[in-house]
Design a protein that fits this description.
alpha+beta; Ribosomal Protein L22, Chain A; 3-stranded antiparallel beta sheet; 47% helix; 20% strand
Amino acid sequence: MDVTSTYKFARISARKARDVAREIQGLPVSEALDILNFTPRKGAELFSKAMKAALADAENNFELAVDGLFVKSAIVGEGPTFKRFKPRARGSAAAIRKQTAHITVVLSDDSVESEKKVRVHTSAPKEVAKKEKAASSRAKVDEAAVVDYDSAPVEGDDLKKITGVGPKLAEKLNAAGVSTFDQIANWSEEDFKAVDEQVSFKGIEFDALVAEAKALQEENGK
């Protein structure tokens, strides 16, 4: 089960916050909090607040075991920029840009993750080598989408089956940690907006995207 916490209009630039997001991606909650507590950066403090809010929500509202949670995704979207001006010489003014960011942390239990690990380790050695090679070849930085990631998922659905999702957009979604129809089918409007800021859906509507993802999910289940 996924638990989402969003810190909107955080007073930090998205670029600086993404440096911290890469450090905690995919880690257990305890290790991620240790890294954030001992990282002397403002982004670490903001991520720590968002993660603690998600932990409280998971423990009190969903009755999940905190020890079994890990950081499924840490997404940073660009927020509005506040413009200020500073007086300078000879009646001129210098612009000051105060950037903001939207921080989204998704925590999940390790049931699905452990199943994937079991399937990978019980496969034949040649199949494991092929999957690891494919994952390493896709582990890169998509600068055009302003999405930084360290590793791509080993297994996933063909997102190009969704109307409007081409090869480039599918690659950007994989870069942002979205690889299955199940993830898209369970999106809320806030999740859609957060990912849209990263990959730019360009005219794809939320309702249509989620509905088609649910249909494809049921088709795969059959």
